[in-house]
Amino acid sequence: MFRSNQRREGMTIAIFGLWRNWAVAVGFLTMLTMLAPIVPKQWLAPINIACYIALQWVHSVLRKRDIPSCSRLIQEVSSVMLITAVALVVIYFFSRGGVKHELTGQPYTMDTPLISILITAPVACLVTLWHLLRGKEPKVCRDCHTRYGNVIEHGFPGLLFRKEWRYQTSLLFLLSLLLSVVDWGYYLVHYVNVNLNRADLFFFLWLPLAMYVLSLIYLGGRYYSMWIYYCQNDEEPFVERPGTTTMRFLIIWADKIFLTFHGTANNYPNGAKIKKFDTPVVIRTPYRERENLHSAITEFESKTGISNAEIKLIYSSPDDVTYQNMFHYFAFVDNADIVAESDVEGEWMTWGNLCHLASQGLLTRDLVSEIDRVYNISMAWKTYDKEGRRLYKIKHYKPTFRLRDIRNWEVDFNDRRWLNIARNNEDCFGFRLKKIFAKHLKTGKG
I want to staple 349 with a disulfide (CB 3.0 to 4.6 A). Which of 41, 150, 353, 384 is the partner? Predict the structure, then answer.
């Protein structure tokens, strides 16, 4: 039996991290609902913004951890808070001009209680519905793929996160829809804005709080059962199965990359299979925590029959949860004949061909993750220094990217700092403000 405390701990963090993210994100929404009647109107929008910043800080902390955590729900709730803040600002300035009238025809002044659940619930309903119907993964997911690689693409956390994100978002949508219908129905029929009576408090405050608490209990039971199934059941083969180490080699000659159209089928729920382009050299071995370059060269030569390629590590994708790690390599060759005479089959693709195939969805997820990482880090390395400031004083300057140049570059694709610079640099909005904020946080810790 291949089982360890480290594996169990990683799976435990992945499972219960979903409950924690729900508790934090939806808890912020519930807290804002409870504060609305007792906080002056002019402070409600700033409080929403402060909660948005707090959620972004939580997302930033989770993103830096070795074991991945799904922050997609956190980003959705952050969007709800921003939209709600804008609506609160509009309502505040609407009420400053003197006596106005609500939808029910009642007078509305600065002293009238503001029922934020009437805004938050419909906004959450629309935002979650949009995300459920959206076909393309958001940026937070693409960043996670690039950051963690194989553990998200094929490992247990990735499968768990994709399934549970849809479940949690659907649950939030249903709860928001129910609150929208019930609270707006009560507001239009029975609410009088002179003060908040017991019925008002029940529908606008205690009902959202009760639904939040019940959701915590329900999801807590769900994830506890899941933890028992995956981490405590000795008969579960997924926990017992030994891990594997995968080595992937991207063969590059001049400005071209060698790809194959075989053995890369993806299964879909309807049973259909669609083959996609991928590198022809993928080697799987029993799990090894580390892989040295000499061993990688030996494995490559044995698989392909190519003995004079220059092998360089691109980056590694560790997986401490299920031990399914991956190592990504470049294999540079001096001419195309070396590959033509080898044991691998495929065809040469230019960078333009590669981009076109990616836009058509004809590349495997692993290959897309590799290309994204190589391109983004290369462009960041060529454009900015290690502090994220432009090397050339030309705003939005974009250097050229050529496959043939990679062989001579001294850039560490395994350095996650360059991934952060690619996302947050001098050409990004709020760069200086973020730097100041980070500096003060660092000073405060010291």
Answer: 353
What is the CATH topology of the domain spanning 244-423? Nucleoside Triphosphate Pyrophosphohydrolase (3.90.79)
Rounded CA separation 186/191 (Å): 6
What is the pTM for the complete model shown?
A: 0.70
At residue 69, the pLDDT reads: 81
Mean pLDDT of the chain: 81
For 266, the token pair is 């993806």
Q: What is the pLDDT of residues 47-85, one digit of tens each?
A: 889 989 999 888 888 877 777 788 889 999 999 999 998
pLDDT reported for residue 446: 36
Domain ranges of the chain: 5-232, 244-423
CA distances from 206 to 175, 191, 405 (A): 14, 16, 62
Which residues, listed in sequence order, are joined to residue 260 by a DSSP beta bridge? 278
Q: Taken in order 116, 117, 123, 127, is the CA torsion positive or negative? A: positive
CB 222 within 8 A of CB 302: no
Q: What is the pLDDT of residues 352-401, one digit of tens each?
A: 999 998 888 888 888 988 898 899 899 989 888 888 888 887 777 788 89
Kindly state the percentage of the chain with pLDDT values over 90: 32
How big is the CA angle at 386 (ends 382 and 442), to the nearest 5 degrees? 155
Contact 264, 344 (CB under 8 A): no
Contacts of 76 (CB under 8 A, 6+ apart): 25, 127, 128, 131, 169, 172
Beta strand pairing status for 107-108 and 100-101?
antiparallel
Q: What phi, psi does 396 have (nearest 5°)?
A: 60, 25
> Do 159 and 70 touch, CB atoms closer than 8 A?
no
Cα–Cα distance measured from residue 287 to residue 439, given in angstroms and rounded to the nearest whole number: 40
How does residue 2 score in pLDDT terms, banded at 50, 70 and 90? very low
- Torsion angle in degrees (nearest 10) through CA of 149, 153, 158, 163: 150
